[in-house]
Each structure stands twice: as C-alpha cells, then as structure tokens.
Amino acid sequence: MRRPIGLVLIGLGAFFLTLAPLVRFYVADQVVVAPLNRYQVTLLESKDSTYFDQADLKFKTGVTLLAKNTVRGDVRANEGNDDIAVWDSTTNIYDEAKPDKPVQIQGYRIAFDRRTSVLVNCCGVNVDGDNSVRMSGYGLLFPLANVRKRDYPFFDMTTKQAAPMQFNAVEKVQGLTAYRFTQTIPLTKTAALDTKLPPRMLGLPDDAGNQKVDRYTEAYNTVWVDPRTGIPVKHRQNIRSTVRTPDGKGSMIVAQADLITVDKDQKGLVELADDNALQIDLVRGYIPAGSILFGLILLFVGGFLGLARRDPPPIEAPRRPDGKFGDMTPPDPPNPPEPPAPAAPPASPPPARSPAPGSQRQRRRAAGPPKRR
C-alpha cells in the first residue's frame, strides 16, 4: 500500500504546484478588478462656510454646508463589454439648516477600465448632461492595487479638464497608512449664465446697470488613498465659486467651503479598503504561496513512500500437489553408487588352542561321572 499512496501524493503535489501560478497570474487578473455594480454614499461637511442664498437673495456666512455624494454603478451601460465599468455620481450641496433647498447639484457619468481605472469615452459619459465632454486620466479611483508615490492625471468634473494629482506625503487615516495627493484647480470659467445681476451685488456702482455674468471656479483638492487597493478613504475639497462680469470688474461669491469627509464615512471607506486588500493578498500572495508549500510537502512525503527501499515480503510456503503446504523444491538427484571394494582373501581358520589347564575340580567336571565297572 505504501507505493500507491506515495504515487497519489506525488500527483497531488504536482497539482498544487501547478495551481500556484494559475491563481497568481490568471485568477488574480479576474478578481482584482473594479466592480460593475457599486453603490456608495459619502457625506462631506464644511463648517463656517459662505454662500449666496438665491431664495432669500442674500449672503449667508458662518453656516454648515453638507455635500452628499452618491455613486451608483450601471451594470448594463457598458454595451456588453465587461472590461468597462460605468458609474454615475451625483453630489448635492446643501445648507444643514435647509436640507430641502440645495445650493448646488452636480451629476456626471464616467466609464473606465476595470483593471487600470483609466477613463474611457464611451457608454454615454457626460458632465451635467453635456455629452461632448472628452475625459482622460483617472476619475473616482486610482490604479487598482498599484498606487505609487508619483503624480497622476485626474479629471476634474467642474472645470471639465484633467489636472495633475501630486503625491505629497504618507499619513494615517483612521489607522490606515494612506498616500496623500493634492490637486490645484486654477480659476477657470465653468459656465456662461443667461441671467443678469444687479450692479450692487457685483460691487459696481448703481448706474452701471444689470450685468451679464459668467461662473468661475477654483479649488484645492486633497485625496488620501489606500495604496493597496487604489480606493480613496478621505476627501477634502476647498472650493470657491464666483460669478464675474466679462470684463472682470464685477464679481460675487456664490459659494466658499472647505468640505471634508465625515469621520463615520472615513471608517466605512477604510473597512471597504481592508476587505478589498485581503482579497487581493489572498489571490496574489497567500493562496499561491500556500499551494507551493503544500505541494512541496506532498511531493516529499509521496516520494518517500513511493520510492524508498522496502524489505522483501516473506516467502509463503507453497502448496504441494497433495493440497498440503510444504517444500516443493525437487529433490537432488541420487548420488551414483560407489564401486564395490575388492574382495578380501578368505581368512585361514585360527589354530586350535589347547584348553588351558585348570584346576582338578574343573577337570573332573569336564570328564563327567566315572564309569562303573
């Protein structure tokens, strides 16, 4: 039984050694991808903010603004190409005291490669309904499981153009070691408005008349990213939105806020990153290494059992033709008879010996009784 068991173990060991590169280079490539169906809600908060309340037609300062960002994957929008993920993002900025009256709403759709996270232009991508936008660089994710300490081009949805996301430092976020990246968006015209504003609101004299204005935005964005997965775990968006006259002489602040991801959602994003990092480590490290180690052990044990020298089995007593057990070795042939020895000459009879003289009584006995006359 030792030899068959050894051969089976050798076969299993070879199987596990073959499984290791299969998991590392094929299964990992199928697992380490962005999901098609993603649903995530993140809340950012900005205290001591300023914005123009269009309902009341006045500036409000020292308020708390909240930005609720919702990301939802559209699994059917990739036109059957499962290498592409399509996500819709909506951000609703509102005053904490008036949650039913949004200050600003922005929505956009992105499509990106599920393995590299690089944006692609397909599947109805748009920013606030504008389908003519051509996206490039990265969007909501950094390179999956491959974030390095270098700059990345990131597409800014407000200005509709890519700007470098620069690596700054390594910092802790809720106990997670993260890479910090910053992006500077210079003052950029983002929209031409059809409405005209009174000159007093723009800081112009009353006799200047109502002025046509354009919207401008500038921002300083900071993102903390889990380098193991490419998932951002914290955002900070320092934004300043204004309206200006075409000649630049009149301007008004529309919104100014410093939005930061709330602690609760930071912890949730860190947990999501940890779960994804564990899956990546399993298929890239733990399972291949375990398969190699287990395969080598099986090969060693199987080789020992199947190829080691064994004592010969004991010889069983054969069965004789008469049904009994015994030695069936044919007897040795009889030895040839030895030649007869030469006959010895007949021996001569021994000479008669005279009786030894005996005593007188013995002689009398030998002679018998005397005869009577």
Short description:
Helix content is 22%, strand content 38%. It is of the alpha+beta class. Strands 1, 2, 3, 4, 5, 6, 7, 8, 9, 10, 11 and 12 form a twelve-stranded antiparallel sheet that branches.
Low-confidence stretches: none
Strand % is 35-45%
Order of helices and strands: HEEEEEEEEEEEEHH
Tell me about the largest β-sheet: 12 strands, antiparallel
Report the C-alpha radius of gyration, rounded. 53 Å
Tell me, rounded to a whole number, the average pLDDT.
84
Distance between the termini: 113 Å
Shape: rod-shaped
List its traits.
alpha+beta, rod-shaped, twelve-stranded antiparallel beta sheet, 373 residues
How does this structure look, described?
Strands 1, 2, 3, 4, 5, 6, 7, 8, 9, 10, 11 and 12 form a twelve-stranded antiparallel beta sheet that branches. The protein is rod-shaped. Helix 1 packs antiparallel against helix 2. The N and C termini lie far apart (113 Å). Helices cover 22% and strands 38% of the residues. The model has no long low-confidence stretch (mean pLDDT 84). The longest helix has 45 residues. A hairpin with a 2-residue loop joins strand 3 and strand 4. With 373 residues, it is of the alpha+beta class. It contains three helices and twelve strands. The relative contact order is 0.14.
List the helices and strands and how they pair.
Layout (H helix, E strand, L loop, with lengths): L1 H30 L7 E15 L4 E16 L10 E12 L2 E16 L5 E2 L5 E2 L24 E5 L4 E13 L2 E22 L13 E15 L6 E13 L6 E11 L1 H45 L52 H8 L6
Antiparallel strand pairs: 1-2, 1-12, 2-3, 3-4, 4-5, 4-6, 7-8, 8-9, 9-10, 10-11, 11-12
Helix pairs in contact: 1-2
